[in-house]
Amino acid sequence: MRIAIGQINPTVGDLAGNLALCTRFARDAAERGADILVFPELCVTGYPPRDLVEKRTFIPQSEAALQRLADATRDLPVAIVAGYVGRSLIPTGKQATNSAAILRRGEILFRQSKILLPTYDVFDEARNFVPADSQALFTLDGRSVALTICEDAWNDKRFWPNRLYERDPVDELMKMGGTLLLSVNASPFHLGKRELRLDMFRALARRHLAPVVMVNQVGGNDQVVFDGSSFVMDANGEIIASAASFREDLVIADLDTGLGDLRADFTDESEAVYEALVLGTRDYIRKCGFRKVLIGLSGGIDSALTAVIAVDAVGRENVHGIAMPGPYSSDHSVTDARAMAEKLQIPFDVISITPAYEEMRRTLGPAFKGRADDVTEENLQARLRGLTLMSLSNKFGAIVLTTGNKSEIAVGYCTLYGDMCGGLAVISDVPKTLVYELSRIGSNRHGGAIPESVFEKPPSAELRPDQKDSDSLPPYEILDAILRLYVEEFHSAREIAGELSLPEDLVRSVALKVDRNEYKRQQAAPGLKVTSKAFGIGRRFPIAQRYFENE
Q1: What is the pLDDT of residues 81-103, one digit of tens each?
Q2: Which contiguous run of DSSP H or E holds residue 519?
Q3: Is 114 a catalytic residue?
Q4: Quick check: is 343 catalytic?
Q5: Alpha-carbon distance 172 to 177, whole Å?
Q6: 234 contacts: CB under 8 Å, gap ≥ 6
Q7: What angle do helix axes 493-500 and 504-516 make, rounded to 10 degrees?
Q8: Which of 22, 41, 287, 432 is catalytic?
Q9: In the chain, what are the domains?
Q10: pLDDT in tens, 251-279
């Protein structure tokens, strides 16, 4: 049996576009002699459709699109596995199902619906779908095929020390006599996810002594980036075919010979994160209907990284850098920003906020009479920069990319309606220490586009004379270590202090900053998830709350 992996980048809700994409891949797979072509989870509708499934027309249009895919490939001998949103046969409760079908010669031969609906991290499928209560095998070319949908394969009791579900759909199907496991996925990327996926499916292949086909979606949808990285394993868990990471791909594996297409991939995780950010940025801009972007270039490392990512995502001709010096900006801020813009060959302008800042000081003077300067005047500068960028955005129809990193956003080192203004927070899930690694990668790809002085200068918002981030924050190496354990691992302040050999008061002060700045983060632009726990849809903490850990 020759199996084709159709690793595609669907757009949520674009049924016609997704259908055309699937049809093109089906014709290519048939030309290459594939017996079966496997697409990712919900390839017809895109994943995640979220509350689109609540629209009355969505389910019937999804099912109609599946039939159109069958009709469009009627002349092809290849069987096709395609995911779609179906309608539940149960008259009560949710009506939508997360389903997959096997099509051949214009007929829908088999349907299977997802049993395990994840409701953790970025997932909230139980909100929209009804779970299936049964499943069956399908016989194709003499093989008993076990078809599972994403989470249904992620509950192996021998792999996971703490399982989330009682049922194990893969185990059930293989006990029925399954000899080939097909797993269709929309499995998001984060650091370490690709290796975890390989380990988990390798354990399944060896446990059930059966080949495994794991097909994953690729592309960005809102805050989530899917890396693809699909593969075929033999019964020993050895990879015989693999698709590329972070791009569409069609690969073939021959189960009889054990041979298949093997794509080169990103072995370095920092390189993979960089690619994820480029892909997520490109797709967010493209799928939202924008072409051009605006970036406030401060001469600092964060805006520099955002700029090189943007150039790789949409092309230098579509990236416009704006330097906005204020009363406390250093000379090298503008010169470094200009030097990088020239190296990247992107349009660049300098718009000083100093005149507007001085005018606002005069305007607000009577109201502020008798009060000393404080963070208000600092934030005024950031908000004037936000106003400038958003005005340019309105005038020229370009989307603003914000430049704040995860470390700053975690502790509230950002200004509402100021540097948080924009349509996409590209590096909001990138800790400051990782920003430097990714910046080196991006700079090297563009011939050293980021000046060395940007790497060497102390981080500063330049909102008051001689200001440095270290004035109010611990060194970023320490801060990032605390944040990883507090935000991503949910360790308590006391536990973190012990693990990192830090003063407990320091850890508690950081934790308190994280908790008290939830109101800011929930007003931020959507960001791209690249760690195991990102701020945004995957971390849902209340704003008005007074819970503090006592241990």
Answers
A1: 999 999 998 888 899 999 999 99
A2: helix 518-521
A3: yes
A4: no
A5: 9
A6: 205, 211, 240, 255, 258
A7: 130
A8: 41
A9: 2-258 (3.60.110.10), 272-473 (3.40.50.620)
A10: 999 999 999 999 988 889 999 999 999 99
